């Protein structure tokens, strides 16, 4: 297991440095700065199969996400990697739509059961990828599972906002991304395990 706790393991999207104007590393947390430029955090390493464990906290109406297998030749991270949505469903408009609620595969698959967020409270989560199979975990429960090559999922992608990005969810490996959506999302206890 490798810990991904501080700025040494992350950098800004399309930059080599940690984006100190948009994120801070403090008290064992990676904290998005509210109102700062929306610069996503990108893992310095690329990953194929992994278990990425973390805890996250959101403010009222908070919105963030964790993306995987992201290729940095995309203009924006969400043009490339599938996203595990992190959301205060009760406070944010995206909470009205099942496929954009907390834990969902953003814009494509709803999470079941619902996992409400209490603003400011940390929730344990995990994103698991193995041999094309992906799982989203919240509070110790698997809330979404899918295969990236599933024909039904590929058809959903073709009908979605991602249809204009032909490399979306196609990479066999890539970066992890912590999304900066403008609010003060906080992450802690980040670790990654890779199969032998």
- As for the CATH topology, it is Jelly Rolls
> What's the CATH class label?
Mainly Beta
- Global morphology: globular
The Rg value, from CA coordinates, equals 15 Å
Q: Say which CATH homologous superfamily is assigned.
A: Exo-inulinase, domain 1
Approximately how much beta-strand content do the residues carry?
35-45%
Descriptive keywords:
Jelly Rolls, 5-stranded antiparallel β-sheet, 4% helix, globular, mainly beta, single chain, 196 residues, 13 strands, 1 helix, 8-stranded antiparallel β-sheet
Give a short synopsis of this structure.
With 196 residues, the protein is mainly beta. It contains 1 helix and 13 strands; from the N terminus they run E-E-E-E-E-E-E-E-E-E-E-H-E-E.
What does this structure look like?
This protein is mainly β and 196 residues long. The model has no long low-confidence stretch (mean pLDDT 96). The protein has a single domain, classed as Sandwich (Jelly Rolls). The radius of gyration is 15 Å and the shape is globular. It is built from 1 helix and 13 strands. The strands form 2 sheets. Strands 1, 3, 4, 6, 9, 10, 11 and 13 form an 8-stranded antiparallel β-sheet that branches. A 5-stranded antiparallel β-sheet has the order 2-5-12-7-8, with no helix packed on it. The termini are close together. A hairpin with a 2-residue loop joins strand 9 (123-130) and strand 10.
């Amino acid at each position: 297991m490798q810990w991904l706790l501080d700025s040494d393991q992350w950098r800004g999207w399309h930059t080599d440095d940690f984006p100190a104007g948009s994120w801070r590393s403090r008290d064992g947390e990676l904290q998005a700065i509210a109102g700062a430029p929306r610069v996503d955090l990108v893992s310095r390493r690329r990953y194929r199969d992994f278990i990425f464990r973390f805890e996250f906290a959101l403010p009222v109406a908070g919105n963030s996400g964790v993306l995987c297998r992201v290729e940095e030749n995309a203009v924006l991270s969400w043009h490339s990697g599938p996203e595990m949505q992190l959301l205060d469903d009760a406070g944010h408009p995206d909470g009205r739509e099942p496929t954009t609620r907390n834990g969902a595969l953003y814009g494509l698959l709803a999470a079941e059961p619902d996992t409400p967020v209490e603003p400011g409270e940390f929730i344990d989560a995990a994103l698991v990828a193995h041999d094309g199979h992906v799982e989203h975990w919240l509070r110790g429960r698997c809330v979404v599972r899918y295969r990236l090559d599933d024909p039904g999922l590929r058809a959903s992608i073709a009908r979605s906002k991602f249809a204009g990005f032909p490399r979306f969810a196609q990479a066999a490996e890539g970066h992890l991304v912590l999304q900066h959506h403008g609010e003060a999302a906080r992450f802690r206890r980040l670790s990654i395990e890779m199969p032998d």
